[in-house]
Design brief:
Elements lengths: L2 E5 L2 E4 L12 E6 L2 E6 L5 E6 L3 H13 L1 H12 L4
Antiparallel strand pairs: 1-2, 2-3, 3-4, 4-5
């Protein structure tokens, strides 16, 4: 499970086995046993949220939006899909 980056104790990562067929580009976020999954396209949006409050969700979405290119690059590097 490659970690793309960490920020304020949150781990932003994806799984190496993302389904068959592989799910569209997304990122998982984890802190203190609470997690969420966000799609990156067509816009940053939550697929799942398992406990983050509204304020934290807004902050996470803003970080993912700001670092979307970095996340996408890590995804393509890991899966060898090219950009």
């Amino acid at each position: 499970m490659p970690v793309v980056f960490r920020e304020r104790g949150f781990r932003f990562y994806f799984f190496s086995n993302e389904g068959d067929p592989r799910e569209p580009l997304h990122i998982h976020v984890l802190k203190d046993g609470v997690d969420a999954k966000l799609w990156l396209y067509p816009e940053v949006a939550y697929a799942d949220n398992n406990g983050f409050d509204v304020r934290t969700r807004r902050w996470i979405a803003a970080i993912v939006e700001a670092r979307r290119n970095e996340i996408e690059g890590a995804w393509h590097d890991h899966f060898g899909t090219g950009a």
